């Protein structure tokens, strides 16, 4: 039997209308545009409106991906949503989204791996497609990070933003997704978390920074080694958009010039599980990717969790 691969049929993205610039943050905490930009590469981020829910943003991104893939919601065999900021404890955001889209009966569930959530969900959907149980899947990464940020803490509130990104995956006889790699180590939970009994995130920024740089360097090497590839075989790096210095460090380890690295962090900030699919959608819409090019997606986040996906653009 011929192997089955999953291929990205289309992408979608959504950013809330409200833009918060560094100058706005200067009015809220003791910080400056120069400090934020120099240490993080962020100039602005989008913030969900008061009445705008996580599922609203997911729906926008999902509908765009479905439209561009020319697929009806009822044709979806699987709906996965990566999020750490659901509107409700249950039903899952995936079930809420399923009802919005008008699909009935397909399995729908959330994946919670913080900033690595989209890579985890993509890896999960890929396994369902490779096994032959699913032909068409919707994978969404969506976050309302503004709801769990402590807006009085200058060391964290400058980093995050809201948004949603989506992909439609279809079974195909050629890749598509070549390999996915996901990992976790719960021993580091306290470095980046919403502590028990609280509803705002805390982070030891310096320690997280160092771990992210080391771990992302390792995951890209693991991905290349498993596929007997070298860094020169990668056309585009699509990294998690946490901090431009973390992105640059990973690109340096791969010897990749920054013009082959997709960066949206300047205008999106860190949108957690939405960051990789938003970056993918942004670059795809700008026509960056050519058929046959190899893309390396990677992410790191709370847990700690980390992962990558190597895929061929079709
Ligand atoms: N504006 C001005 N000064 C700030 C500030 C802000 N927004 N936030 C912190 N500072 C100050 C600190 O208080 C500290 O002052 P001190 O030296 O007087 O104590 C100084 O800047 C340096 O702080 P430090 O935490 O060492 O800075 P940094 O270079 O590590 O940058 C982060 C801080 C948060 C930008 C950086 O650690 C980071 O990006 N970490 C990873 C975050 C991340 O990606 N998390 C999500 C992973 S998915």
TrEMBL record:
GO BP, one annotated term: fatty acid biosynthetic process
Catalytic activity: malonyl-[ACP] + acetyl-CoA + H(+) = 3-oxobutanoyl-[ACP] + CO2 + CoA
Keywords tagged on the record: Acyltransferase, Cytoplasm, Fatty acid biosynthesis, Fatty acid metabolism, Lipid biosynthesis, Lipid metabolism, Multifunctional enzyme, Transferase
Primary localization: cytoplasm
GO terms for MF: 3-oxoacyl-[acyl-carrier-protein] synthase activity; beta-ketoacyl-acyl-carrier-protein synthase III activity
Pathway: Lipid metabolism; fatty acid biosynthesis
Presence of keyword Aminoacyl-tRNA synthetase: no
A Pfam family assignment: ACP_syn_III
Domain of life: Bacteria
Domain notes: The last Arg residue of the ACP-binding site is essential for the weak association between ACP/AcpP and FabH.
Assembly and binders: Homodimer.
Protein name: Beta-ketoacyl-[acyl-carrier-protein] synthase III
Source organism: Acidithiobacillus thiooxidans ATCC 19377
Gene it is expressed from: fabH
């Amino acid at each position: 039997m011929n192997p089955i691969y999953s291929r990205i049929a289309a992408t979608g993205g959504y950013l809330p209308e409200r833009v918060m610039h560094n100058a706005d943050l200067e009015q809220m905490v003791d910080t400056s545009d120069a400090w934020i930009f120099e240490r993080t590469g962020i100039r602005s981020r989008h913030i969900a409106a008061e009445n705008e829910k996580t599922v609203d943003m997911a729906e926008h991104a999902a509908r765009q991906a479905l439209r561009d893939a020319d697929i009806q919601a009822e044709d979806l065999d699987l709906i996965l949503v990566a999020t750490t900021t659901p509107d409700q404890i249950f039903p899952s955001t995936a079930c809420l989204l399923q009802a919005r889209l008008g699909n009935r009966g397909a399995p729908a569930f959330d994946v919670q791996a913080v900033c690595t959530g989209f890579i985890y969900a993509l890896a999960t959907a890929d396994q369902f497609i490779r096994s032959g149980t699913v032909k068409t899947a919707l994978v969404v990464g969506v976050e309302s990070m503004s709801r769990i940020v402590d807006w009085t803490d200058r060391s964290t509130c400058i980093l995050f933003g809201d948004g949603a990104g989506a992909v439609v995956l279809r079974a195909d006889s050629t890749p598509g997704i070549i390999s996915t790699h996901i990992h976790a180590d719960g021993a580091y939970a306290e470095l980046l978390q919403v502590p028990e009994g609280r509803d705002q995130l805390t982070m030891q920024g310096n320690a997280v920074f160092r771990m992210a740089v080391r771990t992302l360097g390792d995951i890209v090497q693991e991905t290349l080694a498993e596929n007997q590839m070298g860094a020169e075989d990668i056309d585009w790096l699509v990294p998690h958009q946490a901090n431009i210095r973390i992105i640059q460090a990973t690109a340096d380890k791969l010897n990749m010039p920054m013009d082959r690295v997709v960066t949206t962090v300047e205008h999106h900030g860190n949108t957690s599980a939405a960051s990789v699919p938003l970056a993918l959608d942004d670059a795809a819409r700008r026509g960056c990717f050519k058929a046959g090019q190899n893309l390396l997606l990677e992410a790191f986040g709370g847990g700690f969790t980390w992962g990558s996906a190597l895929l061929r653009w079709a």
